[in-house]
Amino acid sequence: MTRRQPPDNNSRCLFTVRSDISTEEALVNASELLASAQAAAHEHAFSLDGQQGDHAFAIAQLVENARLLVNTALERVSPSQD
What we know:
The chain is an all-alpha fold and 82 residues long. The chain contains 2 helices and no strands. It has a domain at 34-76. Helix 1 packs antiparallel against helix 2. The radius of gyration is 17 Å and the shape is flat.
């Protein structure tokens, strides 16, 4: 895997990730973003009927799958202290 170089001042990039962010912090933030996306997808899905609702539920499921992968990686990087 190659590391991306930080954008230069002429870049059209709106958002960047801090170069000093830890893996744990990045995974926690990714998990929180995915949780928000999942909640929005579920809320939207319940307001739709038929095929559109099915598509929204499918998106919610894909987001949940991604969140489970991120949470598994987070647990490996920083095991919880139960």
